[in-house]
Design goal:
heterodimer, A: 651 residues, mainly alpha, MetI-like fold, 2 domains, 28 helices, 80% helix, B: 318 residues, alpha/beta, D-Maltodextrin-Binding Protein, domain 2, nine-stranded mixed β-sheet, 40% helix, MetI-like (chain A), transmembrane helix (chain A)
Chain lengths: 651, 318
């Protein structure tokens, strides 16, 4: 990306930066001096003024009622949305039946075969082992349900994403129109996508699949466009000079040149789809996510874990296999020709296994082979809650920490934010966003924050914001320390890498399980889950940024006799400023996503409103909360966005 | 190129028209996971509380082992469950605590849901304090005195006010309006789920701390932690009509079963069993205690109950 060059002079000339910052602040202070007394005179008090809110619950409720009444009669539903929904149901069902007909042995062997062809023997073994583990945990059928849903959702996302990406890659105007939309969609928490689809399609698999597609298609579109636009100009020129038509150029040069980005897009789409397919259990997706959701509702940590492990295994396997496929493609030009008979033998083996399962009537995973981990896990959790939960001498138990964190950090932060006059919150937002970005980002941030007030959810939004801020602070402290350590010690980084890999591929939902066991219910566990989820990305970006610092600068510092602490403070950290800012940005976005899901474990505020809206069918409450979440996400992103966005989590 | 695009668009539109000709009613589309491999399947909605799990577990056991059905269960919250029931994504709700709006919309107007009769259990929602606290302070059981005890019910989550603990966001509750309208110095704190609420109650009880909670009967927890109800202004017919202005207690509700209308007509033996399913509060509590306290799986608990109550369920099968 071309952003590095843009920011370089800023670092080189801190005087100019300081000058600019002062000017921006002065301008802002001037605007505030004029506007604040006016606003304060009309609408005094800390809360968002009631006169400036718009009650949208009435029309929303009417819309929701209208949809329920007309869902089986209005042409829009009968001839358009009904067919979409029907198509989704039929295709998910088809995939599901094929998976069931294959039997556990057939499916496992087939997955192994695919992994072997695209990623090599080691990953093939790992894939087969992962599938067997799902069966062993007694989760075969839910795993197949999730897989069926995933297959359909990923195919649809890839097609939609590739088409959008193609349009953006070929037309500059389209690119300019799409980019801000896609950028914004990437920072929105998954939960915000659920409500609108539920409004139209009702609870069930179609809604779940569509929400997943909306969530997972943007990375594919972005990366496709990026790949097409980044094609080597020289090659294109050469192809054009040979007289190729536009279509030939696209098919023979641009798309093949972009295949690495395309595969990365597929990889990202799969990971996001999996994460969403699990969260979508809240709107009736069924499968593994539903098992986790049910288990969470009864705080049955053991059962939740039994369903959570297959999710993690699926995520890791899918990530590795598509990742390896991408790497192979990168160097595939001179791959040794594969021996065809190997493939024939392997396919025959898979078919034989599936048939054997069919003939011996062993399609279902045999019940005798399941391993119940729920009991031992629950016993361990009981022991933990009995011994760690409270009353540990000197350090106190986890529940005591959670209580103290709530009383000493979350409460003052929330009360402080809610005590601040509304216009001062807007001012702070404007100042932060302008200092770090442009007036455009500042304006977006302020408008987003104001929209929250207009929607009438100022207080719960500030509550959510306080949780986000607390979680981000903890994440950054832990993340920067770990990142610095990883950047300075090769051994530490090697040890850390697999841990980060696994943590980064886990769907957000999974993090809720252990925190409930440790911290009980409330805002503290939501914050804890958010910290754990966001930490890997922050650590990784920090370490990368520090390692990319020009070795020459470090060398010269060392030759001047700087200690390693001085090198870190005076050379590495300032030069890695952009990476650190990016880490902050990513941390904020990821934290928000999980704090919202924290509504399921007693996090309250906006997340609770969204869950409440879904649970009560009160879509007015849910949609307003969803819109506020979107605005909060936008505001937080703009406030922390240096200039241009980089690739997202997992990239 | 221009021509080709136009042709493609036209072809696409034609295709869409062709396939789109028939109407597709999405309210009639079942779950893609139902009826897999031709088995006769019944889908039951399980709500998150243990009593409802007991109903479903026993019904499921009888359907599977005595009638040879395959039973799917889905966890759906109460109000979305009505929508799912109307669409046929769920065949039956075994325990409903009274949703007059939905009843009017789906049973009376659209006729997509049919009544399935009494469950035989009467439910009651109320505010409860632990009996050990009520014995020390007998006057706490009248709502008029609640404000004097607010400081004793304070927690980290309730701020300066007393805590009134609610459970799952999906349960029927007027508590926020009640606190407001009765001018109580309390903050409603949602535990997020019933299980979380039970965990919290048990921990309070272990330390003999005072607490005030939204709770309901029949519930197996009364056997573990004795609770005493706080008297709210008496319930009168229609006093809870406007959810904003409620200032009275919750009613005593005979719990109802509801079936999808098509399923009720053509569901054969399964529909007939579910319609006749009727047991007592004691029966339900017996199964619930096995599930929640002895940590049996719902299926094991159902088997135990079925084995020892043949006379009760024989009547449902006839």
């Amino acid at each position: 990306m071309a952003t590095i060059s843009a920011s370089a002079p800023r670092i080189a000339l801190p005087g100019v930066l300081g000058h600019q910052a002062v000017r921006k602040l002065l301008l802002l202070a001037l605007a505030a001096a004029v506007l604040v007394p006016l606003a304060n005179a009309r609408w005094a008090g800390g809360d968002w003024p009631a006169a400036l809110t718009v009650d949208v619950s009435e029309p929303l409720t009417r819309t929701s009622d209208w949809i329920i009444d007309n869902r089986d009669s209005h042409p829009l539903f009968l001839y358009f949305l009904g067919h979409i929904s029907n198509g989704v149901v039929l295709s998910v069902r088809a995939v599901y039946l094929v998976l069931l007909a294959g039997g556990w042995a057939g499916v496992t062997a087939f997955a192994g075969l695919v992994a072997w062809r695209v990623a090599g023997p080691r990953l093939a073994l790992g894939t087969a082992a992962a599938f067997l583990a799902c069966g062993l945990l007694g989760m075969w059928v839910p795993t197949m349900q999730t897989l069926a849903l995933m297959v359909v959702a990923v195919l649809a996302s890839v097609v939609v994403g590739a088409l959008l990406g193609l349009a953006a890659g070929l037309s500059g105007r389209m690119d300019r129109a799409l980019r801000p939309v896609l950028d914004t969609m990437q920072v929105l928490p998954a939960f915000a996508y659920l409500l609108p689809v539920v409004l139209v399609f009702g609870i069930g698999v179609p809604a779940a699949v569509l929400a997943t597609v909306v969530y997972a298609a943007p990375p594919m579109a972005r990366l496709t466009a990026l790949g097409l636009r980044g094609a080597d100009k020289g090659v294109l020129e050469a192809v054009a000079s040979m007289g190729a038509t536009a279509r030939q150029r696209l098919l023979t040069a641009r798309i093949p040149l972009a295949r690495k980005e395309l595969l990365l897009g597929v990889n990202q789409t799969i990971m996001m789809a999996l994460s969403m397919a699990v969260i979508a259990s809240v709107i009736g997706a069924g499968g593994l996510g539903d098992r986790v959701y049910q288990a969470l509702a009864s705080v049955d940590v053991g059962a939740a874990l039994a369903a959570g492990i297959p999710i993690v295994l699926l995520a890791v396997v899918l990530d590795r296999v598509t990742g390896a496929a991408g790497e192979r493609l990168g160097q595939s030009a001179d791959m040794p020709a594969r021996r065809p008979y190997e493939l024939v033998v392997a396919v025959a083996a898979v078919v034989a296994l599936a048939l054997a399962g069919r003939l011996t009537d062993r399609l279902d995973w045999p019940e005798a082979w399941t391993l119940t981990i729920a009991d031992p896990v629950n016993r361990a959790v009981d022991w933990m809650t009995a011994h760690l939960y409270s009353g540990v001498p000197y350090v106190g138990g986890t529940a005591d920490w959670a209580g103290r964190f709530t009383t000493w950090v979350l409460d003052p932060l929330r009360d402080g934010l809610q005590w601040l006059p509304w216009w001062s919150v807007l001012l702070v937002v404007a100042a932060l966003a302008w200092l770090i970005g442009t007036w455009r980002t500042a304006l977006t941030a302020v408008l987003a924050m104001a929209a929250i007030g207009v929607l009438g959810v100022w207080e719960p939004s500030l509550d959510t914001l306080s949780q986000v801020l607390a979680a981000v602070a903890v994440t950054l402290v832990l993340g920067f320390v770990t990142g610095v350590a990883a950047a300075r010690s090769d051994r530490f980084e090697r040890a850390l890498r697999p841990v980060l890999d696994v943590f980064q591929t886990m769907p957000q939902f999974v993090y809720l399980i252990p925190v409930v066991a440790l911290f009980g219910v409330g805002r503290a566990p939501a914050v804890a889950a958010a910290v754990v989820y966001a930490l890997p990305a922050v650590v990784r970006i920090t370490a990368q940024g520090l390692r990319q610092v020009d070795p020459a600068a470090l060398e010269s510092a060392r030759s001047l006799g700087a200690t390693s602490g001085q090198q870190l403070r005076q050379i590495q950290l300032p030069l890695a400023r952009r990476s650190l800012l990016l880490a902050v940005n990513q941390g904020v976005v990821l934290v928000l996503a999980v704090v919202i899901i924290g509504g399921l474990v007693g996090g309250g505020a906006l997340g609770y409103d969204a869950v409440f809206g879904l649970a009560q069918g009160d879509l007015a409450t849910g949609l307003v909360a969803g819109a506020a979440i979107v605005c909060l996400g936008l505001m937080l992103d703009r406030v922390t966005q240096p200039t241009e966005r980089r690739a997202k989590k997992g990239a | 190129m221009r021509l080709r695009t136009t042709t493609a668009v036209a072809a696409g539109a034609a295709l869409l028209l062709l396939t789109g000709c028939g109407a597709a009613d999405m309210t009639q589309q079942a779950s893609p996971f139902a009826n897999a491999r031709g088995a006769k399947t019944v889908t039951l909605s399980v709500q998150s509380w243990v009593g409802a799990q007991s109903n479903v577990a026993v019904a499921q056991y009888l359907l599977e082992h005595k009638l040879g059905y395959r039973v799917d269960t889905v966890q759906v919250d109460e109000i979305p469950a009505w929508d799912a029931l109307s669409q046929g994504r769920v065949d039956a709700i075994m325990e409903d605590w009274g949703h007059p709006d939905q009843e009017k919309q789906y049973v009376d107007d659209k006729k997509t849901i049919a009544r399935g009769g009494d469950l035989g259990v009467t439910g009651h929602i109320g505010w409860y304090v632990p009996t050990y606290f009520a014995e020390q302070h007998p006057d706490v059981t009248d709502w008029k005195n609640l404000n004097t005890y607010a400081s004793q019910f304070r927690t980290a989550e309730s701020g300066g006010k007393g805590q009134l603990m609610d459970g799952s966001p999906s349960y029927i509750t007027n508590d926020k309006a009640l606190v407001e309208n009765l001018k109580l110095d309390y903050q409603v704190v949602f535990a997020g789920s019933e299980a979380a609420q039970i965990t919290q109650i048990k921990q309070f009880a272990k330390e003999q701390k005072p607490f005030l909670t939204y709770w309901y009967a029949p519930q197996w927890l009364f056997k573990k932690v004795p609770l005493t109800e706080v008297k709210l202004p008496p319930y009168k017919e229609g006093c809870d009509a406007d959810p904003e202005k409620v200032a009275c207690a919750y009613p005593h509700t005979p719990l109802q079963k509801f079936l999808n209308a098509d399923f009720a007509r053509s569901g054969g033996k399964a529909a007939s069993l579910l319609k006749k399913f009727r047991w007592t509060t004691e029966d339900q509590n017996e199964v619930s205690l096995m599930i929640a306290d002895q940590k049996l799986t719902p299926q094991q608990a159902a088997k135990k109950w079925v084995d020892s109550h043949e006379s009760t369920w024989k009547a449902w099968l006839s």
